[in-house]
Amino acid sequence: MNIETEAVPQKRIVERLQQSESIPWIFIAALLAAAFGPTILSLIGSWFDDGINMQHGVIVPMVSAYMIWTKQEDLKRIPSAPSYWGILIVFGAALAWMLSMLTQWVWISRISLLVGLTGCIAALHGLRIVRALAYPLLTLLLMIAPPSFINEQVTLQLQLLASRLGEVSLEALGYSVLREGNILEMVGEKLAVAEACSGIRSLTSLLFLTVAYNYFFVGRRAHRIIMLCAVVPVAILCNAGRILATGVVGQYNRALAHGMLHEAFGYFGLGLGAVLLLLLHRVLVKWPSREVAHV
Prior knowledge:
Layout: H1 2-19, H2 22-35, H3 37-46, H4 60-70, H5 72-76, H6 84-103, H7 106-125, H8 127-132, H9 134-139, H10 148-172, E1 178-180, E2 183-186, E3 189-192, H11 200-217, H12 221-250, H13 254-257, H14 260-286
Antiparallel strand pairs: 1-2, 2-3
């Protein structure tokens, strides 16, 4: 009698596990963690590397997961239709990962992780679910640093541009400035616009913040595009303001300009950039839209 009563709850537990939709995902997550373990660890490590400027990558997966959670009602209305294309995508991701291991191209290995995740979703639930999750999945790209040769080239150009804007701004305020590359020489002071001061960190952080803000608060596609296009000039202008403030403060207190206040200028510039983008959205919302009258 006791054996029968104990067997009933066990049978119910087995039935619930079989009906649970989370079991396949737990299994898939375990497989991805085992297959891409070194890639995941190196990706997490890159978020804490000051030389890569990807500190915002820590919160990208959480924001992407929250995006998916907000779409759960819409996802329930899409019928699950497992696709063989998902298996092919996973197979392609595995080949790309093996190629990255042979060539030591870290960026490819990290991209293959996201491709493999997308393939798993398609294999389990179908391509329609993948299309519905396109925005959150593409957002995950922002947690991966671009290839080093692209990052170095962009950083160099931002350094030179920031130096030029800093020179023009300081001269506009009446200060004497001599610029040589990314070096600004002022009276009694020499400012070096290093890689950390190029604005690349503000640019990548503002880009992620704008992508997240667009998803939750910006409805019109045209407004989203304008917001994204505005990220680059806003980041450049805010970084130029940081260099300007550092140069002005350095004329009165050199030690203060190169200490904690210099770091504070960077965070202030990032906050200012976010505020400017918010104001831009408010302007876009208030801007009268032209409606075409149908005769």
